[in-house]
Amino acid sequence: MNLAEYLPEQQELVETELDALIPPESAAPGTIHQAMRYSLFAGGKRIRPILCIEAARTVSDDSPGVIKTACALECIHTYSLIHDDLPALDNDDYRRGKPTNHKVFGEAMAVLAGDALLTIAFQILAELTNVSAERKVRMIRELATASGTVGGMIGGQVADIQGEGQQPTAALLDSIHRAKTGALLRASVRLGALHAGGTHDEVGALSCFGEHIGLAFQIVDDILDVEESSDALGKTAGKDAHQQKITFPAVYGLERSHEMARLECDRAHRTLDVFGQRADRLREIADLIVHRKS
Fold first, then answer.
1. CA–CA dist 16, 49 (Å, integer)
2. Res 236: pLDDT
3. Is residue 206 exposed (0-12), middle (13-18) or buried (19+ Cβ within 10 Å)?
4. CB atoms within 10 A of CB 88
5. 9, 137, 179, 240: least buried by Cβ within 10 Å?
6. In whole angstroms, what is the distance from residue 71 CA to residue 77 CA?
7. Integer Cα distance of 95 and 82 in angstroms
8. CATH number of the domain that 20 lies in?
9. What's the pLDDT at 39?
10. CB 284 within 8 A of CB 209
11. How far apart are CA 235 and CA 239, in angstroms?
12. Residue 175 is part of which domain span?
């Protein structure tokens, strides 16, 4: 199966599982479940859960229940997007071509929808039945750390906000994006490997892969904000420059940023040598991340 066939199949699996895990709109209080589902089913690419699933498959042919672990990641990612779009942060009107959550449900409900998705992510991991208690604790710790303040997503978001209007430097850029975007992408493959019972060396190799594709993903995101239209991106283009954010094009320029993305992709490929052909799908996903247009 080629990548063009594989991705929609995996996306459908994730969508189906998310639908089963998230309370329906008919469950009280209905408004919060409607708000959660509005953003969760807004048409995301599901890159993080697919990376989680494929990392588990790279380690083992038998990883029952990994789809639930993958869905926990998507809940965290979606919560972060809802909060990112709020007026107090990026103040964006559109996400994935649709009005942002707070534009539809109001700011208070958007905050609570994000909170609820964050909370349910850890409930999903806590209720896993196909992994040992010890491994489950490691996975919960992994996701919490990647989402948190010290080297995690929230810490990166704080640095991003505080960096607005500052002189863009390579050191500040690195501190922002290895945490803001890279930590959760790295956790995606680590969680898949942990779920599948990966060895220390296997988890380590996939961690390195996640670090390189996480950096590549953010570089490309910054490039697209400059080069693509709002219609193509499904969100407001050019906001990074307008808000004086510290981005790769701002620090290195577009040409060098393109080169850096390709270099990170090459490095990601090399970290997978230990897995041989078992990691071919991960290599294809790395290429997709670098060559995407939205």
1. 13
2. 73
3. buried
4. 10
5. 9
6. 10
7. 9
8. 1.10.600.10
9. 98
10. no
11. 9
12. 3-291
H or E element, residue 95: strand 94-95
Q: What is the pTM of this model?
A: 0.95
* Nearest residue to 211 (alpha-carbon basis) of 143, 265, 131, 260: 265
What tokens were used for 152? 């995690």
Q: Return d(Cα 11, Cα 43) in angstroms, integer.
A: 10
- 124 secondary structure, DSSP code: H
> What are the start-end ranges of the H helices in the chain?
3-21, 30-40, 47-59, 66-84, 101-105, 107-126, 133-147, 153-163, 170-180, 182-195, 200-227, 230-233, 239-242, 248-252, 254-271, 280-291
- Taking the chain (294 residues) in runs of 10, the rounded mean pLDDT of each run is 94 98 97 98 95 98 95 98 96 94 98 98 97 96 97 93 88 86 95 97 98 94 87 72 84 95 97 97 96 86
Query: Which pLDDT does position 9 carry in this prediction?
Result: 97
